[in-house]
Predict the structure.
Amino acid sequence: MRLILIGPPGVGKGTQSALLTARLGVIQLSSGEIFRKEIELGTDLGRMAKRYIDHGELVPNGVTIEMMAKQLRADDVQKHGFVLDGFPRTVKQAEALDEIMFEMGIQLDKVVSLEVAEDIVLERLTRRMGCTRCGEIYHSKDKPPHREGLCDKCDSPLFVRSDDQPETIRERLRVFHEKTAPVIEYYARTGSLQRVDASEGPEETYAQICGTYAK
Ligand SMILES: [Zn+2]
């Protein structure tokens, strides 16, 4: 299966990607996770990406497309399929993805637009914390760690992502409406778009994604 998850920051793309990966065996390709890994490793790509991400801006199209094209061509991705999370974020990226897939001779099964009211997204993001080691996500209200500031799974310290600071969140939402909302319209025109209400819990959202997939 090959699918794309699109939605504003905080809508639950990462959570749904993880569920799809665990249950369907597809490979998760999250541009945000890949960039964060590069930043952690201190690579040239990471240093460049950090300047944009820390300000809530998008990493430029050229770099992002090149990086994702490489990921899409990996053997395990070709074998097991993928769920794209955080890519494409602009219409240019969506057009590039079409070209890459055309060259590879593959097609998308569907594009899921996760939709939720903005106040819910803000509430989710402003209370979000991640584990510095394993990447597990916590939420001070909905999913607090058992011990404050420490990961339940691996005991490592938790942190608030640099792009989850309040002023950065507002910028990310603005960028989403300006650059990524047109991507949803792009896929609506090609007919592969599925709109999903992501205002309830992860399992309800997941059931909608899969229910529609069975059609
Ligand atoms: Zn952890």
Remarks:
- The longest strand covers residues 110-115.
- The mean pLDDT is 91.
- The first helix runs from residue 13 to 24.
- The pocket of zinc ion is lined by residues 131, 133-134, 136, 151, 153-154, 156 (CB under 6 Å).
